[in-house]
Amino acid sequence: MSYLTGGQAIAISMVLPVGAGSILAFRAALLPRWTGWLGLAAVVVSVASATTLLGPMNNRSPLYGFLLLAAILGFAWVLVASIVLARQHSPGA
Question: Distance between CA 48 and CA 54 in Å, rounded?
Fold first, then answer.
């Protein structure tokens, strides 16, 4: 199951871009505020998923649920932010 989610590499590599985008959602209002909270949740779960490196190396460990949740939240944030930004773009500008 961990390989289906990309393992720790996907979860940890999403922390910086999603975190930066979430900060922009809060401070610069480039995105709706709720996308900032979604991104913050994705960052927290992604960092928590790094604990799978410390646990047993089998897919039956409950810690691997963090990997799946981290991947889902991270990719959901990217998809939602992309849709919101695409709708804000004006073709004449």
Answer: 11
